[in-house]
Structure prediction request, 280 residues.
Amino acid sequence: MDRALDRMARKLTRAWVERYTLGLPASVRDLRRKVIESDLFEHCADAQRDDDPHRFVAGELLHRLILGIPNDLGWRLEILRSLPNGANQWRISIMNISARTMRWIAACALLAGATMIGARLIQILSGSEGSPAGAIALPVAILAITGVLGLYAQNRDTNKCSAVGLVLMLLGDGPA
Amino acid sequence: MLEAAIRLRQRGTNEFHGYALAKILKNSGNHRRLTAQGTLYRALHRLEAAGLVESFWEDSPEAEREGRPRRRMYRLTMQAEGALAGARDPENSPPKKLNLKLET
Prediction:
């Protein structure tokens, strides 16, 4: 079980590194990917040497992955900013997520979460046996509509792809 | 982070890889956030850009012999030693390059 979790954590880390290095110059991209691959190996080898049955390697790997995400994105931005003006500049603009956009996304997520909890509470209190999908559909719809409207407004105001661009980057914006 | 590198050198490790540094930072307790891969390698990248650290790939044969990926090795430069000495000595003000923001 633990081994499977370790493998999953390693896969997640690799997948994330591949995403945030997409579109960077090949030398920088390959260097970062190899460095992280080596780091993952050293971490797991260290855990094996430790031979501590209580050591939760997958948790350690995920902890290191998640806490580093803001700096991964910051590093990517630094690299892009250091490139000469030209084809890569649009990639910089998509990373410039304004505080307003972030607030909007957070508000949408909170609204959806609160609606979901409310819907579930009503379901429990009324004793109805409705399907869980029914309880989720409404908040998801609210999130989708408010989120899209908000991002549309943001993009119109700032003429930037902001958060949409970030999502595109995470989904893959071109060949590695 | 530089102090962690110094600690490694005091143990006889002049050249270190990222995970070795992360382990030192983790054991030091206060700097667990710095062990995150994104934070660690961004900080090393900045230190390298500031000329305080230099990096290179280790030789392939050694990695092949041990059956592992090649390590990216780092070592402190003379400039880093000077900067650290300056930072510890109140008579000498630390160079501004040391005021790098390494944590978010």
Observations:
- The first strand of chain B starts at residue 15 and ends at 17.
